[in-house]
Amino acid sequence: MRSEPSVPGNSKKELDPALYVLSISKLFKDLGTGMLAFLLPLYIVGLDGGMFAATPIVVRAGIIATVFGLSNALSQPFLGRLSDSLNRRKPFVVIGMAGFTIISFIYANTDSFEYLVILRVLQGLTVGATVPAIVAMVTHLSTTSTRGVAIGIYSTVRGFGFGSGSILGGIIASYYGFVTAFYVCSFLGLASFILISFFVTETHDGTTGKKKTSEPGQGLQFFILSVAMFMMMFGIMIIFAFLPEYGTRLDTGEISLSIAVSAYVIIRVLFQAPMGLLSDRLGRKKIIILGLLLNIPIVIGLGYVMNVEQLIILRALQGISMAAVETPVMALAVDLAGISVSSKVSSITASQAAGMALGPIMGGLLAGYISFETPFYLCAVMLLVSLLLVMGGIKEPVSSKNS
Question: Which UniProt keywords apply (predicted)?
Fold first, then answer.
């Protein structure tokens, strides 16, 4: 009889070592993802704008981030359901890594903004194939009593890669150029592809056939959690549309900006696992509320920074707020999901990707055509709305309180 990597219903308090193998294997691709998120808004400054030549640079930077996030978000629910129906996760991750690697290589030979947009759409689809599958694998490698910590550890490794990637991208672009940086991204994607292909084993839910009974209001709770993730990512990702503008306003270059971008992720990495542990012990809802509340004054402050040091400090504080929201939201969603993890939790990850997509383009449009400060106030209002929704509509599952 074949043994499964994990059985979610067991009572073990220890984390499955396979969780670390999965997280580290994906680390290299996350480095590349962080590099691209930072490099592409700056790379387009020197590209032929074509039909977008008269469009403000902040709007073009927003478009690049938005098309990736939208294609990523729209593909996740469909691919999550397909993953559940096939009861297979690893093939989705492997195919996604291959697509990321190939498209990163092509960036190095792209000199048209329109062509770059098309490539970014395709890359969003490939990355979308990996997200619900990986979340399901992390779920299969944890129990209810360790889920917050497991998701925190996975998110820590992922965040470390993304944050370090921004700094690495800034250094490589400054000394060796954008083309070299794109080749490095492709190589990092290839490393993850190889590691996952040979060292990560398929996972399956150990509760097959034991469907969880839906609790009253569960659909509403998934909606609220999705809204919270969308609002958080919207407020965090608008900065990518403003990188060229921040560079001019603050009179700073790629390396300083990369540190500001990475400050958020690095601090988030340090707080991800602790916030997961706190959510296991104190309850998911309290930690989510704390994170949303903290982010409101931070996003307003981002519209008034006077130097790069202030930008770095606010982004670091944003890392704490995001760690307090993302880990317990994902853990709570998994607690509610039952066995259809990929399909149900994909609504959360898709909302996160949608926030990543719409934040930069909406921020760019508002800053480009109204005022630089306007999008930051919009983000604050959105966060306040999601805070009120969480306070009024989220209930702690009995299992997360008593385990």
Answer: Cell membrane, Membrane, Transmembrane, Transmembrane helix, Transport
